[in-house]
Amino acid sequence: MKGAPAYLSQALAPLADTAAWKAFAEAALRADRGAGTLRVLEAAGLAVDLSTQAQSPELLEAGLALLAERDFGAWRERLLEGGIANCTENRAAWHTALRAEEPPGRVAGRVLAERDRVRAFVRHIDAQGRYDSVVHIGIGGSDWGPKLVVSALGYAGTRRQMRFVSNIDGHAIEAGLLGLDPRRTMVVVSSKSFNTTETLNNAQCALRWLREAGIADPWEHVVAVTANAEAAKRMGVAPERIFTFWDWAGGRYSVWSAIGLPIALALGAEALDGLLQGAAAMDAHFAQAPLERNAPVQLALTGLANRNVFGYASLNIAPYDARLVHLVPYLQQLEMESLGKSVDLHGQPVSVPTGPVVWGMPGTDGQHTFFQWLHQGPEGAPVDFIICREADHPYPEHHRLLVANCLAQREALLRGKPASTLETELAAKESDPERAAWLARHKAHPGGRPSTLIVLPRLTAHSLGALLALYEHKVFVQGVVWGINPFDQWGVEYGKVLATGIAEELAGKAPVGQRDPSTAHWVEAWRAAL
Predict the structure, then answer these.
(1) Does the pLDDT value for residue 11 go beyond 80?
(2) Which of the residues are catalytic?
(3) CA–CA distance, 264 with 134 (Å, rounded to integer)
(4) Residue range 176-185, pLDDT digits in tens
(5) How far is Cα 142 from Cα 116, in angstroms, rounded to an integer?
(6) Which residues have CB under 8 Å from 327's CB, separation 6+?
(7) Does the reported pTM lie above 0.85?
(8) CATH: 3.40.50.10490, 3.40.50.1820, 3.30.565.10, 3.40.50.360. Which one for 14-69+289-415+449-482?
């Protein structure tokens, strides 16, 4: 295809037109969807139960044939060995190198040196005892990962008070600084490009706050994490307080890099190390496990069947652990920024729908919020239930009830309850048969709704790292099959460009451009008010 990189010279046929895809779809339609066979995959200490998803020997075989046709083996090798996996930006997507105990040779020196710098800095700060609060300023991939990990693993307390500021809404930075002692506060500014509007504006607010507190050199309180060290230096950050990562580490995959600094500041370097080790264990499983027992691969194929064969437009994430409150938005970014694409690698329209909408919240709160829709709405959605085998609190009855609710909701989605059964039950309570039949129709559950159960032994740095890497690799496999690039995000970039122009217009620095009537109206209205 003209314009595409040379290694994409062999164009893949549209997915929907291929014999392998048609065989996969037909096998999925014929597969058992009633959990007739227990199917649990073990991966890096996690148990992934796919029993209530479509399954059959024929479907498994068809999935393997589909992967072969889409050249999955070569793409996996390209990913894990640092080849050009991100074709539109002509670079690797080598986040696996960041968490390897022994990183690949050509990046080992840089990765290990920066890893050591982060840990040495944390030891130095701990020894000084100078800071008891950290304000972390970043957005997107520079925010969700550290925020998730600190929230999940710091539930019993952190070494320092941690505040995460991401949004450009002034209330966010106001709340992030409120009540802190500037003299005892470190500000960590994290941005891959170091030109992110939200991050730089919030950083300037934090600097003003430090100056207004009478701190002569506010830069002594500031640390930067970026792939653009020169921009951080120009801003004023001292070189020894700049921690780097590289353009081959995508933002939504950057928690494994120096972006993890806040994790070490909050929980200790051992927590960051455990996170990397868990992810590396999942990388090894993804690289080595037979495809039929490969958890990310099979999770991906299950998702493809749900999205493209059974027509589910969304995926619900239900972590039955209150500590994982930030897991859903983390996975929303990972999945929807990666898979929200409408053209294939050659720039041609995709032939089937790609990434689903990802949504959810922790159970059991979700049961009292949207599970009604999951059970009885006409569309429904597959659910990923996530739970720990063991809890870390001293309330065993709470954990029993949590597990019972998780398993019961999953079973109810699968089994359902037909109106005929309900009518018989209600007949014993209702004297009016017509009323019994009417109520039965309201209470009926269709059932047959797919779910996956992911069981962690406990919520530790290792198991959390493995869980996040499981989803990363699942997304990659789906990108390969759909023939899209899961490592760019051009739609997001376009919105940023438009916002820059509108901001200039709102400030009166530029005339209102050629905009649609509604946008032009509100730009003029705000110009008059500001």
Answers:
(1) no
(2) 337, 368, 496
(3) 11
(4) 999 999 999 9
(5) 20
(6) 148, 152, 317, 319, 386
(7) yes
(8) 3.40.50.10490
